[in-house]
């Protein structure tokens, strides 16, 4: 393939210039990091699984009218996306207490929350992505009050969609993180779901056994991450074709 201009490289993905203005190619790496990259490993096949899973969730959201940056998948590791101006916030929605909320507030993991709780974290690796309030966001100009209202509404629609999709395959959506970007149409701006939605950025527990099917498997050394992500992909019917065995062996003369 011709050399492409690299726009940005993050911990798990690379962004390249796209074929047309306003587009980018998002490449999914096999790298897994946790605790602000203190823990790092390369897990063969993770990028392929996350590319497929993010395609599945983002195209489902597009189909129900929740706008995302996703245009189409290009190959095993790459997808074509709309270029957006990323809002420097991680938006976390929680349905069940776990992770940092359990630690911060002393609530036992697995405790159902009375309603979905939306939290914001400022995207800054050097600071370890600190939690911020709407007051900080508005005072520092990261987003307006209108943006914030729209971000909460968007996140809750994503939560309802993902919760339903996962529950249908026996998985509880405990919490997830999304990133949101701005797309400009002349003077008109709209917010879209960006980055990725995958088991890297969600907590997914098997409804019957409570088994972790997400990046906590890596963070907490609970076993094979690819087995966990493959299980999610298998249940959703989105395993890459080279790992399904749908076709019969053919005799080669
Ligand atoms: P937390 O409980 O560690 O705050 O994580 C909440 C959710 O956000 C969980 O589904 C994992 C996801 N997450 C990310 O996607 N990236 C991150 O850097 C962190 C800390 C969490």
From TrEMBL:
It catalyses: 5-amino-1-(5-phospho-D-ribosyl)imidazole-4-carboxylate + L-aspartate + ATP = (2S)-2-[5-amino-1-(5-phospho-beta-D-ribosyl)imidazole-4-carboxamido]succinate + ADP + phosphate + 2 H(+). GO terms for molecular function: ATP binding; phosphoribosylaminoimidazolesuccinocarboxamide synthase activity. Residues 6-235 form the SAICAR synthetase/ADE2 N-terminal domain. CDD domains: SAICAR_synt_PurC (cd01415). One of its GO terms (biological process) is 'de novo' IMP biosynthetic process. Keywords: ATP-binding, Ligase, Nucleotide-binding, Purine biosynthesis. One of its GO terms (cellular component) is cytosol. Pathway: Purine metabolism; IMP biosynthesis via de novo pathway; 5-amino-1-(5-phospho-D-ribosyl)imidazole-4-carboxamide from 5-amino-1-(5-phospho-D-ribosyl)imidazole-4-carboxylate: step 1/2. Its EC number is 6.3.2.6. Belongs to the SAICAR synthetase family. This is Phosphoribosylaminoimidazole-succinocarboxamide synthase. It comes from Rhodovulum strictum.
């Amino acid at each position: 393939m011709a050399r492409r201009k690299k726009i940005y490289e993050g911990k798990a993905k690379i962004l390249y210039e796209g074929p047309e203005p306003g587009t980018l190619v998002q490449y999914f790496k096999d790298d897994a990091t946790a605790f602000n990259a203190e823990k790092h490993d390369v897990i063969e096949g993770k990028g392929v699984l996350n590319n497929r899973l993010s395609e599945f969730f983002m195209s489902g959201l597009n189909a129900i009218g929740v706008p995302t940056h996703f245009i189409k998948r290009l190959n095993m590791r790459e997808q074509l996306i709309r270029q957006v101006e990323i809002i420097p916030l991680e938006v976390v929605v929680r349905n069940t207490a776990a992770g940092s909320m359990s630690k911060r507030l002393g609530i036992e993991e697995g405790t159902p929350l009375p309603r979905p709780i939306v939290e914001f974290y400022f995207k800054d690796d050097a600071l370890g992505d600190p939690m911020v309030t709407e007051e900080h966001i508005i005072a520092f100009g990261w987003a307006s009050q209108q943006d914030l209202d729209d971000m909460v509404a968007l996140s809750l629609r994503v939560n309802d969609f993902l919760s339903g999709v996962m529950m249908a395959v026996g998985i509880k959506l405990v919490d997830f993180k999304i990133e949101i970007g701005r797309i400009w149409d002349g003077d008109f701006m709209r917010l879209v779901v960006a980055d990725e939605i995958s088991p890297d950025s969600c907590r997914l527990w098997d409804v019957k056994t409570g088994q972790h099917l997400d990046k906590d498997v890596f963070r907490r050394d609970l076993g094979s991450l690819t087995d966990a992500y493959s299980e999610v992909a298998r249940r959703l019917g989105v395993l890459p074709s080279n790992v399904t065995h749908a076709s019969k062996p053919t005799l080669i003369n």
